[in-house]
Specification:
It contains nine helices and ten strands. It has 255 residues and is α/β, with parallel strands linked by helices. Helix 6 (146-158) packs parallel to helix 7. The longest helix has 18 residues, at 176-193.
């Protein structure tokens, strides 16, 4: 029998509210090394708040967050977790004032205090991993296409060899062909690192390309989890509506 790997990240009974509005209502979530988990759900279902709590950007009102078996709620624990984590933000969030290589090497330069020559070489090697040439290293992000900017952002997320990766709508704003290429790179790099990955996305093509497991979040609670192979035969009304993109069903349009 194959042993089930221990989760690197575990959310247990996580609640979060803003004023009178409960956004998360007892979220239980685990992801193990080598596993790619995708969270789907309608707008306002709590996807972004879930990963912000997981990253320590927001403190849950109730519940626990464990990273590698240890509580990750204190400032010291959150800092330790972030050193082992990479993040690809929705818009890329590249720094316009920095060159491409400086963006990729940001944590090496300003957190790990690499010498600039070593940081630049590492950045160029990492650009190669996302199929970008070293010749763009000294360009500014504004000189690149949207797809190239997204790949630079991916290179920045993986440059330090993280054990846990977060992807926030990684293909937003990309055409279908470029989006598929980015999805393939994400999948390849997660496997190469042996990392755990959590992605939130509305793009079903990304879900099918990236996910091992899929979680459906609705009204601040996880209502379904299963392998991506069961996505079209889940038998769950919320999942079926979301996957088919129907307006009719238990999920109300956010209008």
């Amino acid at each position: 029998m194959t042993a089930v790997p221990a989760p690197i990240l575990e959310l247990s009974g996580v609640h979060k509210r803003f004023g009178q509005r409960s956004v998360l209502r007892g979220v239980d979530l685990t992801v193990a090394r080598g596993q790619s988990l995708v969270i789907i759900g309608g707008s306002g279902s709590g996807k972004s708040v879930t990963i912000k709590c997981a990253l320590g950007l927001m403190a849950p009102d109730k519940g626990d967050i464990l990273f590698d078996g240890e509580t990750a709620l204190s400032p010291k624990a959150v800092e330790g977790m972030r050193r082992r984590t990479g993040m690809l933000f929705q818009g890329g969030a590249l720094f316009d004032s920095l060159t491409v290589w400086e963006n990729v090497a940001f944590v090496l330069l300003y957190r790990d205090r690499f010498q600039r020559s070593k940081a630049r070489q590492t950045a160029i090697e990492t650009l190669g991993k996302v199929h970008l040439p070293g010749s763009i290293a000294d360009l500014r992000p504004a000189e690149l296409s949207g797809g190239m900017q997204k790949r630079v952002a991916l290179a920045r997320a993986i440059v330090s060899g993280p054990e846990l990766l977060f992807f926030d709508e990684p293909t937003t704003g990309l055409d279908p062909i470029t989006a598929d290429a980015v999805n393939s790179l994400i999948r390849d790099q997660v496997k190469a690192l042996g990392a755990a990955a959590i992605t939130i996305t509305h793009d079903m093509a990304s879900v099918r390309r990236i996910a091992d497991d899929v979680v459906m979040l609705h009204d601040g609670q996880i209502v379904w989890r299963g392998p991506v192979s069961r996505l079209d035969s889940s038998g769950h009304a919320h999942v079926d509506q979301f996957v088919s993109g129907r307006a009719e069903g238990p999920i109300r349009p956010a209008i």
